[in-house]
Amino acid sequence: MPTVQQAVTLTPELVRLDQVSVYRDNRDILKNVDFSLHKNEIVTLIGPNGAGKSTLIKVLLGIVHPSRGKVITPKKNKMAYVPQKFNPSHSLPLRVKDLLDLEKCDRKLRNEIVRDTGILKLQDSKVQQLSGGEKQRVLLARALLRQPDILVLDEPMQGLDIQSEAELYEYVRSLPERYNCAVLMVSHDLQWVMQGTQRVVCLNKHICCSGLPESVQQHPEYLAIFGGQRVPYQHHHDHCAHGDHVEACTHIEHPHIHPEPEV
């Protein structure tokens, strides 16, 4: 695997893929992948469509078994997964609070997560009737209620407006420290990739390059895939959108996501 400048990681290793390959229908889905995730680390997985990102996640979650190679876990990890899409049957009368009740945790923690993900007013809503952005918030809240060692987010910005995206960036950054979990995110949002993560892994069936965002951004294989896009912008969440204007956020000091405005 091509090497670039690596982030300094001192935390314990949670999971490691050792020369993992996955074959399906006589073709390579993943080929000789070496990958590791450490405690309280934020890693973003990028790559073109068909690169094997979803398969790599399924290997980590234990849904897909490698055709070759090993998945090494020093201890049993509790995993939580936020998928790209969640469309339960309309014949299933599932309310938001029913979905959250599937995860048992301390009441204080539940109230904090529900508030910080901006879904307090959605508790009695049917999941099927939520907007795309509301579903993403609910799924994120449910994942955090599991109190996972590893939180996997698959394109979590889908369906969110620009303000909510910015707030979610900051909220995800705060999760390792607040909830003692590692975060693995799949994202096509290069702004997040280059500004909101500690390590970037560029996948195209094999790992093209991996390391610090600013180093990966200069790597030839990254440039071949993404065409030299550079992202200097960084958003710092020090305001909130209330209605049609921006004002200082004073009601909660730590990173959080606001509810969608009522129509």
TrEMBL record:
SUPFAM superfamilies xref list: P-loop containing nucleoside triphosphate hydrolases
TM stretches of this protein: none
Limits of the ABC transporter domain: 15-229
GO biological process, one term: response to zinc ion
Molecular-function GO terms, alphabetical: ATP binding; ATP hydrolysis activity
Keywords recorded for this protein, A-Z: ATP-binding, Cell membrane, Ion transport, Membrane, Nucleotide-binding, Translocase, Transport, Zinc, Zinc transport
The organism's place on the tree of life at top rank: Bacteria
Protein name stated in the entry: Metal ABC transporter ATP-binding protein
Source organism of this protein record: Acinetobacter guerrae
